[in-house]
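[Automated response] Your request has been received and processed.

Submitted sequence:
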Amino acid sequence: MIKTQNLTKKYGESFAIQSIELDLAAGDLFGFIGPNGAGKTTTMKILATLLKPTYGEAYVCGQSIYRDQREIRRLVGYMPDFFGVYDDMKVIEYLEFFAAAYRIGGPKRRQVCNEKLELVDLDFKRDAFANTLSRGQTQRLGLARVLLHEPQVLLLDEPLSGLDPRARIEMRAVLRRLGQQGKTIMVSSHILPELADMCNKVGIIDQGVMSVNASVADVMKQVRQQIVLQIDVAGDREAAAKLLESSPLVESATIDRNLVLVKLQPAVEDYSELSTLLVQAGHKLRLFREEEVNLESAFMALTKGLGKRV
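Generated structure:
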């Protein structure tokens, strides 16, 4: 759905973005992460055909940004980080105005607008004036606007910026639903936790250079060189830890907050025999699971040394 090759934008001798390579399929929810000024907005504007690259190629739904700009604009919904609303328009009137611009006419226009308001959980504000909405509600209205023409690709520039915790949760839920509908979504942010629990792919960009571009699973695998198990047993945890440490699969076993933390030897992936070892020794298992790698920790590990701004 989105594919770029050596995508580059220069201003004079300075690179806004340099050699960006993307390959996103239908249903991908791609988190585009980087500090302000890293090149996120530049990349999105090029994909939306609002800015021409210096060189390189990009395809959206198989259409070239050089030859097929009109078609791409029918397929893409682009939401900038800041946009205005008209003070004298109600929410439903605002959407109908843009639906008319998309040439959605007749009874279908009101139907489409109502559907999008319901999708973004804003139907209860349909008759409120647009300029009276909260920041979170305004962001959802902007999302409803870019969904009017049923785009296959969504380019959302910092849609969670400035939202309170409840509004961020609500917006993330909406984006997940859109991903489940098969839409390809690129969503940018300079704050990793905003995207950590909803994206299946992430890209990390700084000073125009993408240092990480992979699935969330691959990022986790890259960071986690060893598996750590969290184990809880009924009874003597010290004895359980000593028993586990005797296994050739285990590098160390320590007690931390009523859990036995077991670090496996490097490259060990099959640890099923450890649970059998404990049970055969008479220990009753309460918990036996892998410790999760937090995406924020992975981000810090992968970007170490790339600069203080990341």
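Summary generated for your ticket: The first helix runs from residue 40 to 47. Residues 226 and 265 are 7 Å apart (CA to CA).
If you did not submit this request, please reply to this message.
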